[in-house]
Protein: TetR family transcriptional regulator
Organism: Labedaea rhizosphaerae
Amino acid sequence: MPRVSQDHLDARRRQILDGARTCFARYGYEGATVRRLEEATGLSRGAIFHHFRDKESLFLALAEDDARRMADVVSREGLVQVMRDLITGGEADERPADWLGTRLEVSRRLRTDPEFRAHWAQRSAQLTTATRERLERQREAGNLRDDVPVPVLASYLELVLEGVVSHLAMGLPADDLEPVLDVVEESVRRFRRG
Amino acid sequence: MPRVSQDHLDARRRQILDGARTCFARYGYEGATVRRLEEATGLSRGAIFHHFRDKESLFLALAEDDARRMADVVSREGLVQVMRDLITGGEADERPADWLGTRLEVSRRLRTDPEFRAHWAQRSAQLTTATRERLERQREAGNLRDDVPVPVLASYLELVLEGVVSHLAMGLPADDLEPVLDVVEESVRRFRRG
């Protein structure tokens, strides 16, 4: 068996994750059969499960991958920007519909699967951490209201995010949400109105 | 066949709705079999389907009943109070857990059933109407911020409500949401902060 480079392994792993993301988004977790995962990734089951122990591990890797990317956007631009990306469709290369698909599947399994919930709680902490850290930096820069503790403002933003995900999941129109997110953004800022 | 009074019919209908609510909340729509509906209501299938054409009609009647009660609370006390009732468990006689069960089932079916979505769109309008009317009254009374149109503020509150429902559905702790709802409430009010 030839030795393969780390770059090659990483690229293969990325190929599997990208295909699987589309597949889970389209068919849901239960509906994403091994055959469909093979079609979506263009790889055999042997290749797929060489990189991921089972479907569960693959889905978790995907959800973690998305959570990490979401935390990156939060660090750079804030959680409200994540919501704006969701409602407008996001950056062209980000395939937000697929991203939303994974997020919805996570929400669904959190509701119905206590084991998954416990497992996920540890991993989702990074979004909360990224949100709080960004808010702390905004507060230090004097951009944030200072009459409400940062953890409360972080919980507030995460609650609105859940609302946005739920709204999109229900197929409701999102084009009227832009001014709503302006209200959200403004309500965490240092601000004066009459 | 004896003639029955309207009061009797109404009481029987109420008995069916109350039993069915508990049943749908516990087992979900699919899991609420006719046998389980009989057990939960204490009535035969003949009696149940004398009042409601089929399970679908029964569920819709229940969801409409809840939407109407929710609109009543909104008219009297505002949508933020509906959210507070949800996170604290609500009034003792309201059985909010069952109420949440119906709400979640509605959310789930909105996601997965386009026909139900079209049907529901007409009925859910009353919550939006109640929310907007209350906000209009608050604005006339000088309690509301006046730099954002009422429909935007109504959409904002409905989005946060979706977030609360989703949060509770995922089994996340709700005891830290009280100060978050203070932020929400305050962000629609006429207010000045430094």
Q: What stands out?
A: The CA atoms of residues 155 and 171 of chain A lie 25 Å apart. Residues 114-140 of chain A form the longest helix (27 residues). DSSP finds nine helices and no strands in chain A.
